[in-house]
Amino acid sequence: MAIYDPSKRPEAAYDSHTHLNETEFSEDVPAYWARAREYRIMEMNVVGYNHVGNAQAIEIAHELEGVHAIVGFQPEDVNEVNEAEMAILRDQLNDDTVVGLGEMGLDYHWEDNPAPEVQKAAFAAQLDLARETHLPVTVHARDAFDDVYDMLKAHHVEEFGGVMHSFTGDAKEVQRFLDLGMYIGFSGMVTFKKSEDIKAALQVVPLDRILVETDAPFLAPTPMRGKMNEPMFTHYTLENMAEQLGMTYNEIAKITTDNAHRLWLDK
Ligand SMILES: [Zn+2]
C-alpha cells in the first residue's frame, strides 16, 4: 500500500535542490512547478551553477511562489570565476530570493573538469564569501571527499552551515561532515537498490540534519529511474526514505521541510 496519497493532502514538502533553470525545463517552467505543487511539494531551491544558471534561478524565484534561489559556481564551470564574476555573485546575494551560495565544491570524477588547483581556488573564494555574508553553502563533492572536508573545516563552515548535496558516501564517511555541522541531502540515489552505502548513511544521520532533493533533471528516483527527473518526484524519494526509516510519509516530509527552513529561511 502506498504511503503517499495526494488526495489526502499530505504534509507539505521541500525539494532542497533542483535545477528548473536547466534547459530541459525551459519550455515550461511554471508547468513543472505546478505539477510539484499538486503533489504538495510546496517549496524548492532552484540552484545555480554558472552565471547563466544563477541569473535564471533568481528570475524563476521571483516569478513562482515558494521558490528560493541559490547562486554559485559548480566545479565544471569554475573557469568562469574571476573578479568581475565574483562581484556579480556578491551583488546577487542582495536579492530577496537568494537564500544561499552554491552549488560549489570539488569534482575530480570528470577528466575534462578544470584542474584541482583551479577548482580549489574558486571553492575557497566562495567559502570566504559565505563566511563573510553568513549564508549557507550547497556543496557538491565527487571523488573528492578528503579535499572537500579539509576545505570546509579550514573555512570554518560551522559558522555559516551548509548541505552536502546528493550525498554519495557511506555511514562512516558521513560522520565527519555531520561533525562539521553539515546537513545531508538525499537525492533519488537513496532509492536505488544498489545504493547500499547511501542507505546506510541515511540510517545514521540525525533526523534534524536530513534533507531531501531531486537534483532534477538528473537522478530520477525509483520507480521513475532513467526518466527525466522533476521536482514533483520528490514524493517518490520521501516515500522511499519513510519506508527505510520506519516512518510515515508525513513525518519525513515535515522533518525535511523543517530542516530546510532552519538552514535557509529562518534568519
Ligand atoms: Zn545540482
End-to-end separation in angstroms reads: 39 Å
Let me know the average pLDDT: 96
Order of helices and strands: EHEHEHEHEHEHEHEHH
Work out the count of structural domains: 1
C-alpha Rg (nearest Å): 17 Å
Helix content bin: 25-40%
Short description, anyone?
With 267 residues, the protein is of the alpha/beta class. It is built from nine helices and eight strands. The chain is 40% helix and 16% strand.
Plain-language structure description:
The longest helix has 18 residues. Strand 1, helix 1 and strand 2 form a beta-alpha-beta unit. This protein is α/β, with parallel strands linked by helices. Strands 1-2-3-4-5-6-7-8 form an 8-stranded parallel beta sheet. The mean pLDDT is 96. It contains 9 helices and 8 strands. 40% of the residues lie in helices and 16% in strands. Helix 8 packs across helix 9. It has one domain: TIM Barrel, CATH 3.20.20.140. The chain binds zinc ion (ZN). The site of zinc ion (ZN) has 5 residues, from loops.
